[in-house]
Amino acid sequence: MVEAYLDRLTHFSPVSEKSRDLLKKHIYTGKVAKGDFILKYQEACNAIYFIESGFARQYYFKNGKDITEWFAGEQEFCFSISSYFKNTPSNLMIEALEDSTVIYLDKKGFTSLTKTHLDLAQLAITMFSRSLIFSQERTESILFQSAKDCYLNLLKKQPHILQQVSLAHIASFLGITQETLSRIRAKI
Amino acid sequence: MVEAYLDRLTHFSPVSEKSRDLLKKHIYTGKVAKGDFILKYQEACNAIYFIESGFARQYYFKNGKDITEWFAGEQEFCFSISSYFKNTPSNLMIEALEDSTVIYLDKKGFTSLTKTHLDLAQLAITMFSRSLIFSQERTESILFQSAKDCYLNLLKKQPHILQQVSLAHIASFLGITQETLSRIRAKI
DNA sequence: CTGGTTATTTGACAAATGTCAAAGGTTTTC
DNA sequence: GAAAACCTTTGACATTTGTCAAATAACCAG
Q: Which contiguous run of DSSP H or E holds residue A28?
């Protein structure tokens, strides 16, 4: 499982056998039951998480409302950007919506390896630039589309989400209310 | 000027004298007159731009509408994330709203140096992770705030923008119409 | 300074979305 | 299999924001 994960990681950017072995020491796996947290509120995000199997939701509270920031499906990464980079307690929570197997890439270990190994530094650059592109696309998608178009966009890009997640969560991901989303659906 | 820029860059992450000299070879400066483009439509974004003096607006067209993605003030960075990382022609344009002096950090040169020098790779990691945090904060700010709160947020974080930019551009940055913004202002 | 241009505000109304409440559906649990 | 808990839909109405058009205000060039 860890080998497959390493394959996936190093697909972003080539990594020597030696670096791969070093990296392996900072990777560990865990099971998270449905409803439990991969990252708890106010906890430091000290790893990059990879959902080997299962499904997770990233969310936070704003003015008492539960806001979904992102969904992470199987074979996808997630982490709290601000907590990870700023070393602050996380406002973001990551909850397993199904029983999940999670692979952790330890931040401290990974960071220190990037300081001594060029190939791993390249890997970090590639990973973060990919995140940057995702983040960018999300902003553009939400900023200038109607709720309906956002929904259709989601439907196209990540249709599996709609099978697994409650309406309320999808609505908060899209930045609209549950009722509005229900009405949008009714029209399609 | 370039030295001050290097100081600023290397403040993100320490860089050796030797690396600094190497980096310098990939930095060049230019003047851009008001109304001219730092990055043209469909051009490849082959540098990270730094506004030494002046002011710039990043925007693109969506369904015929002019959408402002970001403003870059003095001593700030800007570039087209997707064009830079994906090597695609840029949909984003960067226009100087005032006569500006721009410092270019050449992508090709910088990228290749990050492949051979650990300290410069670290610099890249730090720069891109900072961009990631900015992008993230922007999404959160826009996604779950009313138009008014977005405006107040901008007022607090980048008040200088409001002095330099037309209402229409600020409105498109906030994702609202000019009329709505005008009414929000009237109430304050 | 003055006419022309551009930017901003205002008004009237339409459309989209939110809020609150209630009614149906589903799923879970015992 | 029935009650409880939870999720989704629907209705009525309020609020926010958009659209179009016109009126002001600010800016610029000659």
A: strand A27-32
Task: Please name the nucleotide lying closest to B187, CA to C1'.
Answer: C9
Partner-chain contact B128 A133, CB within 8 Å: no
Q: Is the CB of B178 under 7 A from strand C?
A: yes
Nearest Cβ partner of A81 from B62, B125, B132?
B132
Q: Which residues in chain B have Cβ-Cβ distances shorter than 8 Å to A121?
A: 114, 118, 121-122, 124-125
The Cα A10–Cα A6 span in angstroms is 6
Sorted by where each starts, the structural domains of chain B and their CATH numbers stand as 2-112 (2.60.120.10)
Question: What pLDDT score was predicted for residue B136?
Answer: 86
Q: In what order do the strands lie in the sheet with A93-96?
A: A37-39, A93-96, A56-62, A65-72
* Residues ≥6 apart with Cβ < 8 Å to A127: A9, A12, A48, A77
Question: Mind telling me how many Å the CA of A139 is from chain B's nearest CA?
Answer: 5
Q: What is the DSSP letter of A20?
A: H
pLDDT digits (tens, 9 = 90+) for B100-145: 999 999 999 999 999 999 999 999 999 999 999 988 888 777 766 7
Longest dimension (CA), chain B: 56
Largest CA distance in chain A: 56
Answer with the residue of higher pLDDT: B143 or A66: A66
Question: Which of A69, A82, A128 shows the shortest C-beta gap to B128?
Answer: A128
